[in-house]
């Protein structure tokens, strides 16, 4: 019995020694106890070629302001392309629109790209790249703090060379200023420029009495019996379907597009003057959002709400398309409709108010 106990103790001692050996640090291995990790400091600074070679520095400076002037030229080209490839009147063909978008887009893209590459090259090759450590300190608005802030700006100006490298600075200002010009130029097409009042233009659509409602873009006339409960149809005037692009198809469609929805007649809340604007629960509203003109095309059958995907304005179809949520300022204009002798849906008249955004002065 004693021999067995001795053997057991020897085995336990052997296992303990094995474990200690396994976890014993190997020779030369440093073991951290209580000593904190020392700050290794910043690595040695490596001078760039532009720091060592004055000619390389001058080449980099020339490259930077050349890129900025390339940006100016690209911005000017974008404006020139707007004039060289017009898309108004008889020039409103698909080829002209494609070329207009392509060359204006290329001009704007190169203008912004040249500014970006020039700014990056400036920071990589010319600006000071010496590393420094900024110690944390408590934030306070004392005079020394203000003086330090002024000094920081002065140091940044000195390190970047912004104040003394006039060619780079002036070319950057020119590039930034020129990059805005194409956008300003494109504002010209936000509304037709034929001398008419914008409110009057948006009050004149191709809808008139007797105009049939047809599907967009097929041009198929719609019967009242085809409009099922809870359905929504994208509608244009029948006369618009035969209009060519050169005759202003896109411009007229942008104003005349309509959404047709059918509800149960008892679900409609209608004022006395609009009792006959719907037909058997079928209502037609302008598809152009009254916020900024996005297409209102998302219909929720359960809530009877129309949703604008751009800024989430919601309109209640069952109650004069009034605004129930979002930034839109007024309800969607309603198109009065009825049926003709053949059962096709037709307009009783045009819109009685301007369609589209509400940011113009309306009378």
Automatic annotation (TrEMBL):
Belongs to the Rieske iron-sulfur protein family. Residues 1-23 have a biased composition (Basic and acidic residues). Iron-sulfur subunit of the cytochrome bc1 complex, an essential component of the respiratory electron transport chain required for ATP synthesis. The bc1 complex catalyzes the oxidation of menaquinol and the reduction of cytochrome c in the respiratory chain. The bc1 complex operates through a Q-cycle mechanism that couples electron transfer to generation of the proton gradient that drives ATP synthesis. GO terms for molecular function: 2 iron, 2 sulfur cluster binding; metal ion binding; monooxygenase activity; oxidoreductase activity, acting on paired donors, with incorporation or reduction of molecular oxygen. It is found in: Cell membrane. The chain crosses the membrane at residues 67-87, 102-122, 172-191. It comes from the Bacteria. SUPFAM superfamilies: ISP domain. This is Cytochrome bc1 complex Rieske iron-sulfur subunit. Its cofactor is [2Fe-2S] cluster. It comes from Microbacterium barkeri. Residues 1-50 are annotated as: Disordered. Residues 255-346 form the Rieske domain.
């Amino acid at each position: 019995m004693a021999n067995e106990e001795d053997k057991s103790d020897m085995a336990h001692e052997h296992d303990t020694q094995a474990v200690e050996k396994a976890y014993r640090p190997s020779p030369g291995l440093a073991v951290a106890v209580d000593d904190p990790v020392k700050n290794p400091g910043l690595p040695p600074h490596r001078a760039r070629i532009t720091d060592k070679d004055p000619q390389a520095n001058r080449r980099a400076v020339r490259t930077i302001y050349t890129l900025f002037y390339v940006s100016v030229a690209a911005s000017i080209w974008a404006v020139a392309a707007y004039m060289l490839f017009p898309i108004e009147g008889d020039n409103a063909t698909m080829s002209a629109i494609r070329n207009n978008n392509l060359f204006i887009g290329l001009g704007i893209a190169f203008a912004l790209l040249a500014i970006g590459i020039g700014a990056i090259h400036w920071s990589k090759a010319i600006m000071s790249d010496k590393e420094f450590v900024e110690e944390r300190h408590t934030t306070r608005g004392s005079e020394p703090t203000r003086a330090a802030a002024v000094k920081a700006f002065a140091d940044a100006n000195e390190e970047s060379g912004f104040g003394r490298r006039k060619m780079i600075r002036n070319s950057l200002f020119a590039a930034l200023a020129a990059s805005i010009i194409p956008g300003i130029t494109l504002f010209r097409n936000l509304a037709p420029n034929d001398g008419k009042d914008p409110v009057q233009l948006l009050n004149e659509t191709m809808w008139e009495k007797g105009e049939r409602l047809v599907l967009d873009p097929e041009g198929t006339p719609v019967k009242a019996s085809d409009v099922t409960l809870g359905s929504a149809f994208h509608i244009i005037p029948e006369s618009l379907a035969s209009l060519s692009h050169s005759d202003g198809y896109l411009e007229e469609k942008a104003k005349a597009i309509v959404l047709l929805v059918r509800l149960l007649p008892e679900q409609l809340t209608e004022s006395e003057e609009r009792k006959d604007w719907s037909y058997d629960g079928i209502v037609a509203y302008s598809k152009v959002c009254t916020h900024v003109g996005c297409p209102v095309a998302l219909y929720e059958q359960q809530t009877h709400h129309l949703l604008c995907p751009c800024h989430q304005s919601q309109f209640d179809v069952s109650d004069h398309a009034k605004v129930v949520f979002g930034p839109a300022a007024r309800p969607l204009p309603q198109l009065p409709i009825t049926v003709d002798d053949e059962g096709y849906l037709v307009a009783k008249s045009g819109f009685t108010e301007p369609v589209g955004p509400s940011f113009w002065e309306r009378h």
